[in-house]
Amino acid sequence: MADAAVAAGAEYIIWSSLPNVTAMTKGAITSVKHFDSKAEVETYIRALPIKSAFYLPAMYMQMMTSMFRPKPNDQGEFTFSVSWGEDKPCPLIDITDTGKFVAPILLYPDKYEGKSFTAATAFITPREMIEGWKKVTGKDLKFVQATSGGSGLPSEVLKMLKGGAGLIDDYQYYGPTGQKDLQWTLAQMDDAPTTWEKFVEVNKPWF
């Protein structure tokens, strides 16, 4: 696609990228292929004779409405399960906010040539997410780490999560500069991204 853009005379590419997890973790995590492959394409684009900028989306809040949606257990409680620790921050984005993050690049392409936009509302822990659900819905949730028993997640999902274990706990998704990079990105934007509590409100009912 990038080669076709160059051949067609396009002036600019905005690529949806992600960190190269294998490189970022110095080989400690090698199975997050959808991150690595995007990063490899970014490296390729940067070497082409075309201007470019890069949009790096966080974990979608929409995943909490499907794969990680709170589930009832046998005791009548609702549980929330993800693979990282209850107090480990993970960046989240409402994917419908994509335009808010890309808008500065479209408005000022030369200013942002070669720049990477760390696209998240904030770094949020599972504990904070549960607090958001409780504040909006009045429903309390029990946290169960997905790699442990009782998570309620399908075996295929658990296998995928196991392969990427440590990405958020140890590397915070984006690596050591992620939170600093996010603050830079947010400072470039005119429109504030959707908060977690607002997302919970808009997507009711949950239970």
What is the residue-mean pLDDT, rounded to a whole number? 93
Structural class: alpha/beta
Order of helices and strands: HEHHEEEEEHEEHEHHHH
Strand order of the largest sheet: 1-2-7
Low-confidence stretches are: none
Estimate percent helicity.
25-40%
SS element count, helices? 9
Q: What characteristics describe this protein?
A:
single chain, 207 residues, alpha/beta, 3-stranded parallel sheet, 3-stranded mixed sheet, 9 strands, 38% helix
Structure explained in plain terms:
The chain is of the alpha/beta class. It is 38% helix and 15% strand. It has a three-stranded parallel sheet with strand order 1-2-7, sandwiched between helices. The longest helix has 14 residues, at 33-46. The termini are far apart.
Question: In terms of topology, how is this protein built?
Answer:
Layout: H1 2-7, E1 12-16, H2 21-24, H3 33-46, E2 51-57, E3 59-60, E4 71-72, E5 78-80, E6 90-93, H4 98-107, E7 116-119, E8 122-124, H5 126-137, E9 142-143, H6 155-163, H7 167-171, H8 178-188, H9 196-202
Parallel strand pairs: 1-2, 2-7, 3-6, 5-9
Antiparallel strand pairs: 4-5, 6-8
